[in-house]
């Protein structure tokens, strides 16, 4: 027989004003298994807690129901008090007779009776409670940062500066990401490379950072504090240790007509190349798809000229394993490309703009390269088709974005600002030119942002037209842009020399593959989902994985950097202890009855369930069963509710506990269909009285 | 039909002879009227007992989940298209390994019930010629599912008021004697411990009184939602003639309508209660 | 005696019982810890008022809701059962409510097929900030259940043969 | 001695007359393709075309029956005895194999414990049996267990459908004879005792090919381990159809059903083919495979029960043969045993 | 290859040359265009401008006339194609719409039926390679501006080629040896539905289109719609009066050019029918 | 400024009525102007499609039916094809014309309406369109007696105009469809329309 103590709180008058607390206590005494029941003015006060502790010792209670406010209010308080009295804290439950009863009902018989029943439900539950111990998890104090753009760089540096080792994995040959491609940044117009390059160098030389460029995450196993990561180092064909980065190979490479990714096709590169002068590491890589040796079997020009003997055509992809405790995902974005065959097959193109195939229709990043001093034109704004200076440039915003019929409904957030910046950069370089901007709304909240847009209009004379463009076609030397200005209500036709499309900010194409490996969820556009949009914006639902930057949604540089530092801080909180304690409200499998149908495994949002093989002593497989990793399980109980044979249960909310609560809803003594006029079944205290 | 019988025997002889399988599960002539009975054939000599005819109503897949077949390394099984749907269900739920089961599919123009009528599953059949097997016997039979046949019983039920429906089911389910023939014969009732056998806590009362019967039949239908392949084994087995398929088909209709899913079609898909879509119907949730 | 639910018989009974005021609706609410439970707390802190016939059984997440709970609640005398959790997209555990929604979809149709009066079953999403919605939901549901009267049909199955 | 005859068409009225004095009335009616004994059915619906799918067992030994109630008050338990929910009853037109099951199981209910629930019902139940002119079904094998299509065992009254229109009445038991007046009220004619003998002979003749199972017990005693069990019963799916339809199977389980502060104890049908039937708390199950469970069923019926009570626990009604979902025929198994015993195997 | 052919009113009137040339071409290619019996007018633009449900009802009647010939309905007129295809797609995809239309027309919709423009038939069913084999007189040295107008591919649901950048006519004419020009106004509306009531507005649109074609160096415009042809061809006189521009640019049907390439005579394709005759130019290039 | 917008509550009823008539939800329009930008007739229009949709969103019934825009729509569907929100704008224009007719509104620009009427009358009468008759009748009705009169003889000369009308065996069937469709259009949107009329002064624009 259980020995449960029931402690009914008056909460000053908050409860006792409408609930007869004394009667609740007396009724509770009558419940089977209740060894002690009392009421008190303030249970949460020190004397109230002392009362509970005393009763636990005196009556050797094996369970406690505090009947007072919401558990969200004081569950921790009372569990701690119970623990101090030597009882396992999970043997204490609360019956919420304040928020769910006294505050929401009038002073009536039914209200007190409800309170009694709520206590009864909880007593029945507590009878089935068992002592639970917090789950301890070891923490490997090394971090993995995926993505070497400004977000990844910031996160890696912060963690490394905090004294922890960081593995930074970047898929491209150099770190830097999109920020390295930018000319200047809004709203200060400072040079992007000037502020980024020092950070790139820091990453390359930091003693705590292990940099894997031209590498990808191949596999991830484990859980928070204990991830095992397999990294694929793609074959560079260059021995990075021998290479001095002198660049001779680039000069001699005969394959020179490959559109440069870094310059977004506005300039060509060679097959062996350093992506851009400030690259970190400043080491070349051979693009095997275009290399003459790799495609035709002959050439080896680079090998011949390399003074360091660093060219290695035999290099193969290499796989390394690293153990880490926390992961920062900073895989960034790419721009939606206008056209039928973009990298985003789910989204249609823009046939009415000729699919953007006209060389003088470019995107925002291409414009950045044109405006960049280190870009293909040395910073001169020249149109790609013939190198002439464009005298009128039309900027189109919301291309792809806010375009439900093209499948993308979100606002790309940064376009309004960078387009304003583009008009300024243009005007600063082409004084007699005019910039036109077609916009639907100007979204410029942020410190100094709206002022910046106003400056573009007021000082640099950008002509802002509120409307979209229906068609762009070439007419001789010009592009005809047919748009509308909804403010005047008129159709607008502009003869443009160049058109810049502010295309949607999209996640890296194919990034969902990585997200699936990580077990993190993503939205319909493949942006990673945060654990909570307000309160846990840098965490993933999967413990130990954090987000930084535009992989989560469109973000500008300050936001990316701030979030990266936030993620780094989360990682360091994780690393601040040798061991993590986790709530023991976790699922548990009954291996005897589990039939390995794997429903639980599929519905678990946290990948906390894995397949386990049970073998006999000789190693023969007896059966497979589901196994819950308590370090990963967060206790939602979806597995338990899904399991047909009820072979998984959730500690703290076991089937037996819930069953007992439901069972306590009805007592034999209750007359469920009373005759008219007859009093309803008396509650136990009335019988006693 | 006889060529199908010969075809089955031939393959069984071959597989048993060359050790491809340890045993073959098939049908043999029963001893009562014209019924057939499931049989486990272990030697090539015994293969001549196997047969196929329009009275081969049993779904043999139920034997894959029970001893001795469950323990075998390799087993052959004779199956109609409808039976193979159950196999697909078992594969989806990892209850059997594809390599372990060798299927002798048999094309089937339809079977007949004990009273000589054609079951709904045959009238609605879309797998007269199976497409998932290791070997197939019999001439190709084109499928021409009767439109509406599958859900025809539901229309009468739909037409009732809820109160009438409740009375109808109360009458039917009161008859239940909890023999569990429905569960035992079902190829997809895969639990080694049925929820009805769990007594700590006892969610489903085992007593064959109206309340226990209601819970049991409700839970059975729920646990088969999106999984039931409509082989009708349960309804055929029920000794008190409860129209169990009405419940199963109602669930099939829901699952088809809500999740565009049909059980037993594709081993690669996720059963509907093992997955979700962000844009699943939300209209009924206030 | 003719036993039925549905409005005809229901109304009659109600008249009789509302005048007698002896029968009280019994509503069981399975609600998730993070959204609806907190929403109900908010209703309390805001001192909103609603009828006292609801008994809350807290579960961590609607994902934990097993339709067996509902059957058992009806067996144990519930006249109405409410299941409520976080709105889609708000689940504390990211996806528990999506899984729950699939279960509801299937289960509610099963109940309807069996002739359970679907007015006695209710699913809702009530967030932590929707104290008012919790109150409205309980008020309305209580009214509906009052209108229906006790769930005699179900409870009368208790008598053993 | 001649016996009175009634018109067949008068049977519904007869049933009503017998049940007239507030008795519960059970009779076979058609439901869909099959017949069932149903309590409270309309006598006009009486259908005698074949043997019903259920047996009359459920009217004496219900599938679920409350045997006590309890309630907690504080920490005490108060237990209330429950009386059988029974009253006078008439089972009208039972088949001889069903009626014969009553004397078969009576010793069981009165062995070390006298079961008041069965006994009280038995005492209040009048069984009017309708003899089979010929075997109503291919599955019948009453002659194999020493009974016949016109056996009067367990019957209070036996009706002989001597031809298409007339039914002869034989009042078998004292309780039956007390009803002479009721029957006389419907009397239309008479038949001779010889014609009843001829009737009985015709019935037995229709089952001439059925084996007498007199050597089965011996054989079973020597063949606890035998390939036969695996061969026949590996197809058994372990449901309760055969045991629940059987008029003589009588296993039950005790279940407590409780709510918060009390509940009741129920006696429910159970079946030896269920895997839980002999499962020990330890997890060990002495009959852990289906063939073992099936063997137990045969052994109990043809060896253990006869050993203890002197009667085969089977009346050859054939329901387990006709309705087994996988067509595992008990007759097939026991007749094989008989054959092998005859061959000395 | 047999198709249920729906000519529509224009093809038996103002666009008799389209009809005749298409028949001549089909015959040479071995395609049977079997005219549906008792067809009625599809109602063109006025019908849906008046009442969209009426337009669908009439289209359903027209689709039903294909019964007994082929579920594949061949259409030449872009307006007819637009009305019929739109109704067909709508009915196939929207059950509610379907029952509405069935109610109005009193005719059950046959979901098997497919409205096909002749361009689409030539491209997908017949094939460019097969067409190439039938070319006996390549249209060498002929610079054609292919004009699509609006109704062939709008809304995008009814388009049989890229709705914004179709190339189907170019591909067919290039297969016949012509040179096609790249020009900006191939998809711009010529305003044909207003050709009668709002002539002044239409002149502006037509002028822009002709200007663009000429600027691209076209010698002839090919089109696939009787309304476009009539509008672009007949309004050239009005343009001369209003804008003082003499375009003198022949506007012909693609079937006429393909017919010539496949060996039909000028008479067989009625090449003389245009207001601005293409005959002199074609003769000069030895194509007549 | 001819109109002043006075919002007094239910300004969404026009939007609802149009939705009821053709299933197009104009709350989705975010006034980007792409329809106006691509419309070939914009230069002739008083408002352009974007503004027209705006007036509907605001429930400005009087202003809406004063516009020539819907009547100048050439039904080229460029707007529909390019609308970023997949709004079938061309259909809305059709429906506005239809509503104007059903509500007996004065039509601001006569010719397209007359053309539509005579065209459909010709079709309804003959089953097929008789172009010469239609043009002659149009000129008569529009008052522009000599419209395109110069083209006629040329076309006749070219053999492009038939001298006698074609008729079709399905003429009766066609007429029946005309009748049923007319009944249908009156039924559709009746609810919203009735509701709108029962509630005058709600959100409608008024003359200043």
Task: Break the fold down into its secondary structure elements and pairings.
The complex is a heterohexamer of chains A (about 700), B (about 290), C (about 160), D (about 350), E (about 290) and F (about 210).
Chain A lengths: L3 E6 L11 H9 L4 E7 L5 H13 L4 E6 L2 H14 L7 E5 L1 H5 L6 H19 L7 E4 L3 E5 L3 H12 L3 E5 L14 E2 L4 E2 H14 L3 E4 L2 E9 L2 E8 L14 H5 L5 E2 L8 E2 L2 E2 L11 E2 L5 H5 L4 H5 L12 E7 L1 E4 L3 E3 L25 E3 H8 L20 E8 L15 H15 L4 E6 L9 H10 L4 E4 L2 E7 L2 E8 L4 E7 L1 E6 L1 E3 L4 H7 L26 E3 L9 H19 L3 E4 L4 E3 L9 H5 L5 E7 L5 E8 L9 H5 L5 E3 L4 H9 L20 H5 L1
Chain C lengths: L6 H14 L6 E6 L3 H10 L8 E6 L7 H9 L4 E6 L10 H18 L7 E5 L5 H18 L3 H4 L6
Parallel strand pairs in C: 1-2, 1-3, 3-4
Helix pairs in contact in C: 2-5
Chain D lengths: L2 E5 L3 H9 L4 E8 L2 E6 L24 E10 L2 E6 L7 E6 L1 H4 L1 H9 L6 H9 E6 L26 E4 L5 E6 L2 H4 L2 H5 L2 E5 L1 H13 L10 H7 L4 H7 L7 H5 L6 E8 L2 E8 L20 H20 L9 H4 L7 H13 L3
Parallel strand pairs in D: 2-6, 6-7, 7-8
Antiparallel strand pairs in D: 1-9, 1-10, 2-3, 4-5, 4-12, 8-9, 11-12
Helix pairs in contact in D: 8-11, 8-13, 9-11
What does this structure look like?
The complex is a heterohexamer of chains A (689), B (286), C (161), D (345), E (288) and F (208). Chain A has 689 residues and is an alpha/beta fold. Chain A has 5 domains: 4-132 and 656-688, Rossmann fold (3-Layer(aba) Sandwich); 142-226 and 327-332 and 508-582, FAD/NAD(P)-binding domain (3-Layer(bba) Sandwich); 235-316, Alpha-Beta Plaits, CATH 3.30.70; 336-504, 3-Layer(bba) Sandwich (FAD/NAD(P)-binding domain), CATH 3.50.50; 587-651, Alpha-Beta Plaits (2-Layer Sandwich). Chain A contains 19 helices and 34 strands. In chain A, helix 5 (109-127) runs antiparallel to helix 18 (655-663). The longest helix of chain A is centred in the N-terminal third of the chain and has 19 residues, at 109-127. Chain B is α/β, with parallel strands linked by helices. In chain B, 33% of the residues lie in helices and 9% in strands. Chain B has helices at residues 2-17, 81-92, 120-123, 152-159, 162-174, 181-185, 210-223, 233-237, 244-259, and strands at residues 23-29, 36-41, 75-79, 101-106, 135-137. In chain B, helix 5 crosses helix 7 and helix 7 packs parallel to helix 9 (244-259). In chain C, helix 2 (36-45) links the parallel strand 1 and strand 2 (54-59). The model of chain C is unreliable at 1-20 (pLDDT under 50). In chain C, helix 2 (36-45) crosses helix 5. Chain C is globular and about 40 Å long. With 161 residues, chain C is of the alpha/beta class. Chains in contact: A-B, A-C, A-D, A-E, A-F, B-C, B-D, C-D, E-F. Chain C binds chain D through residues 76, 160-161, and chain D through 62-66, 85, 259, 264, 266.
